[in-house]
Write a structure and sequence with these properties.
Elements (H helix, E strand, L loop, with lengths): L1 H28 L6 E7 L5 H11 L2 E7 L2 H10 L6 E2 L3 H9 L34 E12 L24 E4 L2 H11 L9 H14 L3 E5 L3 H6 L5 E5 H10 L4 E3 L5 E8 L8 H12 L1 H11 L14 H4 L14 E2 L6 H17 L2
Helix pairs in contact: 5-6, 5-12, 6-12
The structure holds pentane-1,5-diamine (N2P).
Pentane-1,5-diamine binds next to strand 9.
Length: about 350
């Protein structure tokens, strides 16, 4: 009997210790309900000081995690088992997530700062009435290049990149739609083409670019180009802006065949535990001073009209990064091409990456 009691006591104590340990782990990872908020964003896409400011203002602790593609982010959210309260998908990903029931409708009464967003960024076709998504940053895809390293040569088109003199000079952003899109645009096809013969043609054209491609990289592309490790980068506009601040010899161009216009947005995924806090965070990021600080820090273009007043003129008036959208007609927004077609784009991109090895 005594042994039995001892055994029970041992089991009981172990269980208590485990319980304590689990609750400790939860609180240290922040999953303790109303007082924490888990934000899932692109890498290098927020000023860390703003996270601190939000924590101070609200008493909510932020757990900050990053991803490097819409595809990776969507897979993780669809799988479940996470507690992301805010995420930042691009437009076609908002549409896909909506379709898959992965988003929580927003309560606009908790987002009074929404009034500062320029109306031309609201009510877009991927989310009419902004029921699920709030604009965060916008921009284009284009070519950043170093004229000095190219003997003064100017780059104006995608097709310039196939020049034999550019061996090992190009870095590509690690994005399926961006890279396949460059292949499509170079052939004057749409960025939303679903004709498999056209897509195969684009993939073959990209394979022919391989000798000129030094690497396919993530956020480190900024440092590599600014440090002149390569003369050319295919990049998102905001990354180019940051590189140009670092190295003023660089220039950025949206190729004449056409390119992508994108919109990134804050959403509340179905995995959210702190919906109240998520609205507070979104509203905080919409505050014009915060939005301006964020835009200045990350280099991307803000859709917040009022924030532009707080940005240095040389940023807000730079037409490379704040183009007049009414006067450009060769930009296309990615569409949600459906699960199977998006998977096909990913497959082609993977094959292209393998081909390089
Ligand atoms: C920032 C990535 C920007 C994403 N590192 C463009 N949609």
């Amino acid at each position: 009997m005594k042994k039995l009691i001892q055994a029970f006591a041992a089991v009981f104590l172990t269980a208590m210790a485990l319980l304590y340990f689990v609750s400790y782990l939860n609180s240290s990872q922040g999953y303790s309900g109303d007082n924490t908020l888990t934000v899932y964003n692109w890498g290098d896409y927020i000023d860390p000081e703003l996270i601190e400011k939000f924590e101070k203002e609200t008493g909510i602790k932020v757990i900050y995690q990053t991803f490097d593609s819409n595809e990776a982010m969507m897979t993780k959210i669809a799988q479940g088992g996470t507690t992301f309260d805010v995420a930042v998908p691009s437009e076609y990903a908002v549409s896909k997530m909506k379709e898959e029931g992965l988003l929580v409708p927003l309560d606009h009464s908790k987002l009074p700062n929404l009034k500062y967003i320029n109306p031309r960024f609201l009510n877009l076709s991927f989310d009419p009435e902004n029921q699920y998504s709030i604009p965060y940053f916008w921009g284009t895809v284009g070519i950043v290049y170093n004229p000095d390293m190219l003997g003064g040569k100017k780059i104006t088109s995608w097709n310039d990149l196939w020049d034999k003199d550019l061996r090992n000079q190009i870095l590509l952003v690690d994005g399926a739609r961006e890279v396949i899109g460059m292949g499509l645009n170079s052939l004057h096809y749409s960025l939303n083409d679903t004709n498999k013969a056209h897509l195969q043609e684009a993939k073959q054209k990209l394979d022919a670019l391989t000798p000129n491609v030094k690497a396919i990289v993530g956020d480190e592309i900024k440092m590599l180009i600014a440090n002149e490790e390569a003369a050319i980068g295919v990049v998102w506009s905001g990354d180019a802006a940051e590189m140009i601040w670092e190295n003023e010899k660089l220039d950025y161009v949206v190729p004449k065949e056409g390119s992508n216009l994108w919109f990134d947005n804050m959403v509340i995924p179905k995995t959210a535990k702190n919906i109240e806090g998520a609205h507070k965070f979104i509203n905080f990021m919409l505050d014009p001073k915060n939005a301006a600080q964020n835009a200045e820090y990350v280099g991307y273009s803000t859709p917040n009209e009022k924030a532009l007043e707080y940005l240095p003129k040389e940023i807000a008036n730079d037409e490379r990064f704040y183009p007049d959208l009414d006067s450009i007609d060769n930009l296309e927004v990615y569409e949600n091409l459906g699960k199977r077609m998006l998977a096909y784009y990913n497959e082609l991109f993977l094959e292209f990456k393998m081909h390089r090895k």
